[in-house]
Specification:
homotetramer, 344 residues, alpha/beta, Rossmann fold, Dihydrodipicolinate Reductase, domain 2, 2 domains, six-stranded parallel sheet, 14 strands, ASADH-related (chains A, B, C, D), oxidoreductase (chains A, B, C, D), aspartate-semialdehyde dehydrogenase activity (chains A, B, C, D), NAD binding (chains A, B, C, D), Asp_semi-ald_DH_pep-lack (chains A, B, C, D)
């Protein structure tokens, strides 16, 4: 029997992607949609300016949107997917956890909190055990799990595949799609025939989230990975798909061949949304490319290519679909992991 | 009295920009236009598919195009601007030099030859003296001077401003405009809603040309700069303007403030096409941007911004107009330097 | 048992789409792939620069490409899909027909020939009977069927739905995607931040093909529709999906409501690739839009919207996916019609 | 001595263009800049998010912005340029006129009012005499003159050149740049790889404003032109430059040659911003194009091309720079006309 789920911030860009992924999902059943006060009481059809490239599923369009409040969500909902602006997430997510809901959140608030697991299932599923610490400390019946930022998710799986070589230094330059900023985040006059070498707070997210994701949980505490990371982030005129240039220096020798093998053999999980292979490595030097490769593995795969030696270690490029693997799909996958691990 | 000049490859994309810059230039007078055999004998108007955003100057349109052969160029022409595919350049440029012409070339052939000066006037004007070595060795009456690749020109002036701090390691990621590949170089289906993380031979150009440009000429030999450079090159959907993310590690401490001051105070030259300031440093973290800033200094300035400290030294972004400062304008400026130094 | 089919021009842009559609098709089995002499003898993987957004099917990648010659195609192939440059099509298609193959062709040659059926199955399936005339006249065992140009296919189904009102005058302005020109047809420098108000021969195709498609076949001869059509064609920076603005003046009164009902109730066919509904009519005035709506009905539906009264009759907009419904899918659908009608 | 002028809505997209055009203008001197209450009291540098591709002039950057109120504008200002949202324009412009200011406005409010001249100087300068009627009726010391909408300005001059042939029916399809919607008007996710066949109220503006512009003022009343116009408007991914496809049916025979001659010989005016020729007619069938031709005549020329006969009269394409000729430059030109006619 499917787990009944709710979507917080259901009318937003990631909220729409969540609905697109959850509606046909056999393990989940959408039972609640929340949005801002002004949308509450309207049907989803009325409340949402639907922009995803498949029509609104009929039953979803007719559901009534509620306010984003635990009291307005039916009691038989067990799992909450949250994709809210971080300030709103910080305000309302704890209330849902106190009220007993398991929350799989894409919002950026609390990602770096010591007792909040930040999880990419294929990378650090064991961090989920932090929830015991979280419940002890916060006295929650529910729980709060986060997925990382879209640009972080793009390169961390490739680094995870290389940890055995001893990660030391990572430089990363990003070429990010406009959808990462939300529907209204980048105006057309800002970006057509242009690029913007700055995305507020983004560089910090890549640098800190990556070290937490690749850290070790000893049962009581999470110790961050000791590698040093420096990111430079750019917005470019693509719709979907973040492309990243990575240099990684490792303790042990690392050839492009060994790196390709480590990436290609890096295991996926036996979860519905985890693609196999997780990392697709291209031989062609001009791949991956956003428009060509963002839908690999239904948008859940990581693509890598251009592996080469440089004076500063290995250089390669990687790519992921930022609103699927990097946001909505990341939350859904964490939901599947929570189900697998008995939290639901 | 104006120096009479010829343009080799006058119908190509850079050739058109050369004409646009040379036609109003008070020190130069266009006296010869060459192109492939099939264009020879036609008027320029007939031969060129003009694509620059100002009309063909009338007198130029009526000039007759000749083959790219020293015998077809009038004897009273002194200076040749060359923008040919490198294989053609390698074949025909030596013949012009032997025939006594001074050649300022944008073609990539011979850029790394030991006796060919590769020059950005504001950076290494003194390398021009290599021409004495060149004439001795080759027995030419003429001479061959090269300007670097467009993506090299974009970041080298900013590094030149920092040499006093002792350059050690440079990582650079580029976001390059489609015009850098020539008019037919990138199809629309390749690049709309996309990015390509590979440009053939480009990374090598940034890595080797930069070390030559910042090297020292001791009167007999050119010693390359000892810094190590690694480049990762990307094509993005912009028309003009290469944007680059740079990390530089130096021997001495280098704060963003000191770097900004060094860049802003880096001298321009008293040549007509050299902008003042040479390097424009933005305080706004989201600048420079291609569409907004590529025309600074009539397309001849370098823009920089986003200076910040990282675990790996200084990080910043820089930008230049790739077909003006990075190609046609670079050749014209070298022509002005040759004139200033008595070669014409 | 599946019909064995061959694809002429299999490495081209439409050829690749044909393979993408045919490979999973239960009624057809790809048994031959042809291309130019230089590709013959290589595997398809080697010969094609694959650019479709799903990987090359494994078995297809390993097939050996042959020259485009009936002698090189296995005898047990019954149906040929052709997508060749029109000059090549004009040269080789008749040979295949003589050799007994049924050819469903997207190439523009012979579309207006009096004995060649030009068919959109949902619009004029009865024109297929022209093949009897064709075989009589040409003495072929095989047969040649054409689908119209992509921009013609976009608006003709909507006109077909309105024929009962008496079509008199049609003005149509097109906003066409770059893929319609083939992979190398439009350079990025031509179209980024630009539009081109001209596509060679395109206007004529809309004007003449539409009148043939909506004409009447009396068993012996095809009488063209008497409406007058004037087209103005533009290329814009979209990847896929032709959008068209149409004004239609009719003999009888035609309200937007009546037109919408006629379009929505216009029947699809019981063929695998014919979508139901054929024409999707939007209420939202700002639809259809290329990126949002081109994949309706797996890229085989026609989208319409913005229906309104004007001083010059009905005005509306329509859209179709130009490389699926407008090219590869159109040929496949004609193949299905040929199968249904006993030609295979 | 220069006329002192004020700019209402100086921080907006058109306001910035107005400053760019007025600052170097020898006949006008910027003496007042107004914006919303929240900007008042700040320097222009602080208040404006400057987005034009030339730096803010120094003196302008240091001016203090005031509220948009006649009491806050110095008394020695004579001419007001207004580019406000129409609801704001409707509210504040009459107050400026009452207070004695001459207002040249780009805002869409009151354009169709019977006593408000809607003027393109080269087309209907004589309509300026409507100001006598306006002053009589409204008792203003000041006066209100409007320029039309950007998409109207693009095609009306070409129609004006053809009036002698007797304009009867006009169909026009527009391909409009994103800057026409203001800086935040079109998001990148709406328009990259897309087109939108709808711009709110735009079609009505082309249809009604064109008939007023080409109407006749008999000294007392303005009689609209009797032609019928139907417009279909589209937004496409270009930054600047509206391209339009026009069909025009005339009473008298009109060949493409006669039309081209009428357009090319249509007179410009002896005003500083009026280009000569006003209309540039291209022979090349693929011109005009937005990126190539929008800066003709410093952005003030109209470009036309593709003239051909159709079953429905003459078909051609035209283009103008929407934020220069279509907005800021249009207002400045009306200011020059007001000066020439003794209103200042």
């Amino acid at each position: 029997m499917a787990v009944r789920v709710g979507v917080l911030g259901a009318t937003g860009a990631v909220g729409q992607r969540l609905i697109q992924l959850l509606e046909p999902h056999p393990e989940f059943e959408i039972a609640a949609l929340t949005a801002s006060e002004s949308s509450a009481g309207h049907t989803y059809q009325e409340a949402a300016k639907w922009r995803v490239d498949s029509p609104i599923p009929d039953e979803i369009g007719e559901m009534t949107v509620t306010a984003t409040d635990p009291d307005d969500v039916p009691d038989d909902v067990d799992l909450i997917f949250s994709s809210l602006p971080s300030s709103v997430g910080a305000e309302v997510e704890p209330g849902f956890c106190e009220a007993g809901y398991i929350v799989s959140s894409n919002s950026s608030n609390s990602r770096m909190a010591a007792d909040v697991p930040l999880v990419i299932p294929e990378v650090n599923a064991d961090h989920l055990d932090l929830l015991e610490v979280q419940r002890d400390e916060r006295g929650w019946d529910g729980a709060l799990v986060k997925n990382p930022n879209c640009s972080t998710i793009t390169f961390v799986p490739t680094l995870a595949a290389l940890t055995e070589f001893g990660l030391e230094k990572v430089h990363v330059s990003t070429l990010q799609a406009v959808s990462g900023a939300g529907y209204d985040g980048v105006t057309s006059m800002e970006i057509i025939d242009n690029a913007i070498p700055y995305i507020g707070s983004e560089e910090d997210k890549l640098e800190t989230e990556s070290r937490k994701l690749l850290g070790e949980f000893d049962g009581a505490e999470l110790n961050q990975n000791s590698m040093a990371v420096s990111a430079s982030c750019n917005r470019i005129p693509t719709i979907d798909g973040h492309l990243e240039n990575v240099w990684v220096e490792t303790e042990d020798d690392l050839t492009p061949e060994a790196a390709a093998e480590a990436m290609e053999s890096y295991p996926s999980l036996d979860l519905r949304s985890s693609p196999d292979p997780l990392i697709h490595v291209f031989d062609e030097p001009d791949r991956p490319q956003p428009r060509m490769d963002r839908t690999l593995g239904n948008g859940m795969a990581i693509a890598a290519g251009g592996l080469q030696e440089t004076p500063f270690g290995l250089q390669y490029n990687c790519l992921a679909h930022n609103t699927i693997r990097g946001a909505a799909g990341a939350s859904v996958l964490n939901g599947e992991l929570l189900l697998e691990n008995g939290y639901l």
